[in-house]
Write a structure and sequence with these properties.
- It is a single chain.
- By secondary structure, the protein is an alpha/beta fold.
- The chain has helices at residues 35-77, 79-87, 90-97, 115-122, 135-143, 213-222, 258-272, 296-308; strands at 104-108, 148-156, 160-167, 172-176, 179-183, 189-192, 203-205, 230-236, 240-245, 250-252, 279-283, 291-294.
- Strands 6-5-4-7-8-9-10-11-12 form a nine-stranded mixed sheet. Strands 1-3-2 form a three-stranded mixed sheet, covered by helices on one side.
- α6 runs parallel beside α7 (258-272).
């Protein structure tokens, strides 16, 4: 019976001198590779691998160089900034492509600020995606705004943002060194006055006046019908108040009980129309005494009128 040889077994050539009596096939062993030959093969493989690697790196470097050149040209030419301004960042574009766009913004708590002012300060527009929007950063941006005391920002997926702001209460206007500032009730400066929306607030002038607005409000309340004529309260040497009227008349109030002096001025106006006279100042610093200073024209006219009056019997001829 012949020996079966697997077709998958390696077949090696038979050599002369095989012993056929045992019915076996003798196989000759292939000669072993010499160390030098193996070394040459390893070196060749290393060279091919290095060449392939260099080609891959070169291709990557070339691609990177071309991409960098394109981006650099876009940045220098302004196209990249224009693209970002019109469409948002690439990451926002990708997030919006997956449905995480910002479609609805709810803003509450604002009284003086407009919606556009809040959104501009927060840096939010339809180009943003809700996923990549940093709610903490938006809150800090809003809190940095002078009129905003606090803010709460919440993201409601998939596409809604809620902003709630707490505004500081504008209480008065304060002028110092030629600059008009909006202040809170405690005298804290809120912001520089930029438009006329706060023009009707009480107006104080001078060092320390911002911390004593409450005193000035009591004076305004005591002035009754004259309140609309009072343009500003000027704190003099941090001791007493002067009233600046719309007509240009300065009213000097006493250090003690300035509200009482304001009430007296209102009475003089009702009874004698004192403010309709050609005056430039009214001095009420002395208790129970009112000194009016005429304008130059009024003083000259008064002097001329007095000079025309007949002299008494004791006069000279």
């Amino acid at each position: 019976m012949k020996e079966m040889i697997s077709p998958f077994a390696p077949v090696r050539p038979a050599f002369a001198g095989d012993d056929a009596r045992f019915g076996a096939t003798a196989y000759a062993e292939l000669p072993e590779r010499s160390p030098r030959r193996l070394a040459r093969r390893r070196n060749r493989m290393k060279f091919l691998l290095a060449l392939a690697t260099r080609r891959g790196v070169g291709l990557a470097l070339a691609t990177l160089l071309l991409s960098g050149t394109f981006v650099y040209g876009a940045v220098r030419g302004g196209q990249y900034e224009q693209f970002i301004a019109e469409n948002g960042s690439p990451s926002d574009l990708l997030a919006r492509a997956f449905g995480l766009r910002l479609d609805a913004i709810t803003i509450s708590g604002q009284r003086e600020l407009s919606v556009n002012e809040i959104l501009d300060t927060a840096g939010i527009s339809g180009r943003n995606s809700l996923l990549l929007l940093d709610a903490h950063d938006v809150r800090e941006r809003l809190k940095a705004m002078a009129l905003i005391k606090d803010a709460d920002v919440r993201k409601l997926y998939p596409n809604r943002l809620m902003i709630e702001v707490t505004e500081r209460e504008p209480y008065a206007l304060w002028q110092k060194d030629g600059q008009v500032v909006i202040i809170a009730a405690d005298g804290t400066a809120i912001d520089v006055m930029r438009d006329q929306r706060f023009a009707d607030l009480p107006f104080v002038v001078g060092d320390g006046a911002q911390a004593r607005v409450g005193e000035f409000l009591k004076i305004l309340e005591a002035s009754s019908d004259l309140r609309g004529r009072i343009r500003a309260g000027v704190l003099v040497s941090q001791r007493r108040w002067n009233l600046k009227l719309n007509s240009g008349i300065d009213v000097k109030l006493p250090e003690i009980d300035p509200a009482g002096a304001a009430a007296t001025l209102a009475r003089l106006q009702r009874e004698g129309r004192i403010l309709e006279k050609d005056l430039i100042a009214i001095d009420m610093r002395q208790p129970g005494r009112v000194v009016a200073r005429l304008s130059e024209d009024a003083a000259a006219a008064r002097a001329e009128a007095l000079s025309r009056k007949p002299r008494g019997k004791g006069g000279t001829t």
